[in-house]
Specification:
Blueprint (H helix, E strand, L loop, with lengths): L9 E5 L4 H12 L3 E6 L8 H4 L7 E4 L5 H11 L3 E4 L6 H6 L1 H20 L6 E5 L25 H19 L8 E7 L2 E2 L9 H11 L3 E3 L5 E3 L1 E2 L1 H16 L6 E5 L6 E3 H12 L4 E3 L17 H6 L8 H16 L4 H12 L5
Parallel strand pairs: 1-2, 1-4, 2-3, 4-5, 5-6, 6-11, 7-10, 8-13
Antiparallel strand pairs: 9-12
Helix pairs in contact: 3-5, 5-6, 7-9, 9-11, 11-12
Length: 353
Amino acid sequence: MFSNIYKNKKVFITGHTGFKGTWLAFLLNEMGAKVRGFALAPATTPNHFDLLDLSSKIDHVVGDVRDSGALNKAMHDFQPEFVFHLAAQALVKESYDNPINTFDTNVMGSVNLLDAVRNCNSIRSLVYITSDKCYENVEWIWGYRENDQLGGRDPYSASKGAAEIVFSAYARSYFALREDFGSATARAGNVIGGGDWATDRIIPDCIRAIESGNPIVLRNPSATRPWQHVLEPINGYLILGAQLYNNPKSFEGSWNFGPSTSQVRTVEEVAKNIVQQTGKGVIEIDGSHQIQHEANLLQLNCDKARHELDWSPRWNVEETLTATSEWYKVFMERGDIEAITRKQLHNFYPELS
């Protein structure tokens, strides 16, 4: 699997207590990597990090990427070969409520990460995750390519576009001078899957409503998203990280990881699927509230990753929704979260077995 490139390697992850970060850290641990995570404590209760008991499986460091001294020390003391940067303020609505914190975390936090990498010569491969929302979205019907214009109407999107520009400056000013070092940015679309408890995301909101006995209230039911399981972009990050390690200067730049246009579904369709699969919940449509702007249409063109990395989605949208519902059903029945997470990893990666 990935030619065993991560086995016994030191891998540093920022944001390992978040939704994507927990899946990435758990998977790397399963592959035999030596993982150190640097992140704030989990933001919600419950959370995937504690449910997996990840603090006993990896080297868990509580820290804030806005604290450059702590981040530099954690990285320098560990001397990793791989770095995956996921730490972020990741919510559009939160960016409207707290724009300064969003820019501070997503821009200056990323500057701190890049500078820590600059000062750590052990690193061979950096995968710097931003977002599909880094593009200046005019809501056209075709997918954005890696060389399309960056931008952002809301603070979150703007912060991710800015983070890409910061990366480009470091890559050209510093990283280009390091022969045995490769770095790239990765942009992924909306992800779903077990272990997400963030607010104002459709599936966590559905599960919270079901558990509390309240109806699932949809304020923008016709909004479409290119849904993909959280393991799809993680697979892309790991392929990219391995290629940067083996061929440092051949895979630099930016990379999109997203589902095909056939995997687009409305928010209402996703909510109905959750209700059907779990056998619980009632949906209500509420159009009475004014919604702050969030793009209704955003699609990525992933031809570059398909052709040059040989990456493609492994699960279609039905398999993705089934796996997600299965995970939350186990949670609601107070089942074994580590077991269902490991089972889904093995279903996604038969080569793990």
